[in-house]
Structures are given as structure tokens and as C-alpha cells.
Design a protein that fits this description.
single chain, about 280 residues, alpha/beta, 8-stranded mixed beta barrel, binds ligand C2E, binds magnesium ion, EAL domain-containing protein
């Protein structure tokens, strides 16, 4: 009996593993096709200042509508799949180009200037031509490094060699903001800051969600804010959903906030409307 159910469990596990692999393979194929077509778009989520609640910047987030709707996926599913091949490079280039096109369009429409923050994956950043490509597209659209911010995760920064850090420093000197994304979800040692400076820590949503009810998470959050401020960093609280979380993060000294409580990610025309209203 026990052996039987064990075997069934194994079979169930193997089947779902198989299904998962099939889905991943199908998504990779569909992403490749979509890069030829027009199945991606960007949405934008505003970041607000905790002092006066004005919109400081917006984060560009990738959305995908494949022809085969059964493959419909969010970035948390399809980005890691793209990361395992050359797809991420091309997808990342699509994102940079689209964000530049959007920003130049907003400028032409006379919209108030707003910074766009881009998520850059490790694979993208470690590609030797990354900065050349970025600067080329900026030039093409008549934009500056200071029009953009990039969000990198801690492991990407920890794994960066001196050459990469020098290139990042160069972009930062040119005015590009650099944020550490999902801070507080990994080791969060800030050790990399000995060799390289960033502008912002974006505190992970999971930590923000737990902090109001958990003394432990509260202590960690408090320590991050204090240490960050001592290092002259801006602190963004990510994924704020409730008034309680907002009050809490503001009290602890977070500088900016991003979350569904304020704004959900929205299509470009909606953000334009928000910025002019
Ligand atoms: P992230 O960079 O940490 O982005 C924040 C994610 O949290 C977004 O999910 C956003 O929609 C979601 N979010 C914001 N506020 C709230 C909130 O109040 N509650 C909840 N529950 N969620 C909130 P999204 O768009 O699904 O993206 C997930 C992740 O995928 C991003 O996390 C980022 O790591 C990655 N990603 C998205 N777009 C890109 C891209 O263009 N390039 C790369 N390399 N990665 C991307
Ligand atoms: Mg991000
Ligand atoms: Mg994040
Ligand atoms: Mg993330």
C-alpha cells in the first residue's frame, strides 16, 4: 500500500515535471516568435514621494500576449525562461528600445519629464555589448542617461567584476540612477557597496508585507532604512498594498513608495493622462 502510493506520487511528480518542462519549452518557442511580431508591450508603475506624494519616476514592466493564449504568462514565469537562452538579450533590447521610444514620444507631446526605471537582468548586464547598445539607443532617440534608472538585483551586483562595475560607475556619473531591486530578499549584506555606489534600495515586497505584524521583520526593515540612509541611499518601499503598510514604512523613514495602494502598473496613455491631470 505504502509502496503503491509512493509510486503514484512519483508518477504524479514525474508527470507534472514533464508538463512543466513542456510548458517552458512552449513558452520559449512562443517568446521567440513574439519577438518577430508585436506581442509585447510595456506597462508603467509610478513611484511616489512619501513627503508630498508626487510621482517621482515610473518602473517599466514587461507584458506579453502570445497568440496562443494558453501560454499567457507573467514576467515572473517567462523572464526566467528567457534567461536560460539568448532570448533574454533580445527581449531586454526590445524593452530598452520601447522605453526610449515611449519617453521620446512623451517629450514630443510636451508631457512633464519623468524618469523610467528599467529592470536589467544579470544576463543582459553581463553581455559585453550592453552599454554600447544602451548608449546607441539613447543617442538614437535624443535621450540622456539621466532620463533612466536601472534596477539590478543584489546577486547581480555581487557577481560583477571590476570592469562591469567601472562601466556602471560611468553610467551613474552620466546621471543614470541605479537601484538594488528586491533588497531584503537575499543576503542583503551591502558588501558590494565597498567597491561601488548605488542610489537606491528598493525593499522587497515580502518584507514590507510582513513588517507591520512581525517584530523580526520590523527590526530588519528598520536596520535597512537606517544603514541605507547612513550610506546616503534613497529607500523605496515596494509593493505597498495597505494603508497600514504605508503608515508603517513612512514612519520608519522610507523615502519613496510603489504599490497597488497608490498605482497599479498601467499602459502608457493612462500614465500620460495621470501626469497631465
Ligand atoms: P520587480 O522588478 O520587483 O517589479 C515589481 C513587481 O511587483 C511587478 O510585477 C509589479 O507589478 C508588482 N507589484 C507592484 N506593486 C505591487 C503590489 O502592491 N502588490 C503586489 N502583489 N505586486 C505589486 P511584474 O510586473 O509581474 O514583474 C515581476 C518581475 O519580473 C519584476 O519584479 C522583475 O524582476 C521582472 N521583470 C518585469 N519586467 C521586466 C523587464 O522588462 N526586464 C527584466 N529583466 N525583468 C522584468
Ligand atoms: Mg524592479
Ligand atoms: Mg522588486
Ligand atoms: Mg523582482
Amino acid at each position: 500500500q505504502a509502496k503503491d502510493s509512493g509510486r503514484n506520487r512519483y508518477r504524479f511528480f514525474a508527470t507534472s515535471m514533464n508538463e512543466q518542462l513542456n510548458r517552458q519549452r512552449a513558452i520559449a518557442g512562443a517568446l521567440r516568435q513574439s519577438l518577430e511580431g508585436d506581442d509585447f508591450h510595456l506597462v508603467f508603475q509610478p513611484q511616489i514621494d512619501f513627503n508630498d506624494y508626487h510621482i517621482q519616476a515610473c518602473e517599466a514592466l514587461l507584458r506579453w500576449q502570445p497568440n496562443d493564449t494558453s501560454l499567457q504568462a507573467m514576467p515572473s514565469e517567462f523572464i526566467p525562461i528567457a534567461e536560460r537562452s539568448d532570448l533574454m538579450i533580445r527581449l531586454g533590447q526590445w524593452v530598452i528600445r520601447s522605453a526610449c521610444r515611449q519617453l521620446s514620444k512623451w517629450r514630443a507631446q510636451g508631457l512633464p519629464h519623468i524618469r523610467i526605471d528599467l529592470n536589467i537582468s544579470g544576463k543582459q548586464l553581463h553581455q559585453s555589448s550592453f552599454f554600447n547598445f544602451l548608449n546607441e539607443v539613447l543617442d538614437e532617440y535624443g535621450l540622456q542617461a539621466s532620463d533612466f534608472g536601472i534596477e539590478l538585483t543584489e546577486d547581480v551586483l555581487t557577481g560583477a567584476d571590476s570592469n562591469l562595475l567601472a562601466q556602471l560607475t560611468h553610467m551613474r556619473d552620466a546621471g543614470m540612477k541605479i537601484a538594488v531591486d528586491d533588497f531584503g530578499s537575499g543576503y542583503s549584506s551591502l558588501n558590494f557597496l565597498k567597491h561601488f555606489s548605488v542610489d537606491t534600495l528598493k525593499i522587497d515586497r515580502a518584507l514590507i508585507a510582513k513588517a507591520p505584524e512581525s517584530a523580526k521583520e520590523q527590526a530588519i526593515l528598520e536596520a535597512i532604512v537606517q544603514l541605507g540612509h547612513k550610506l546616503n541611499l534613497q529607500i523605496v518601499a515596494e509593493g505597498i498594498e495597505t494603508e497600514l503598510q504605508a503608515v508603517f514604512c513612512k514612519q520608519l523613514g522610507c523615502d519613496q513608495a510603489q504599490g497597488f495602494l497608490y498605482h497599479k502598473p498601467m499602459p502608457a496613455p493612462q500614465l500620460a493622462q495621470l501626469l497631465t491631470s
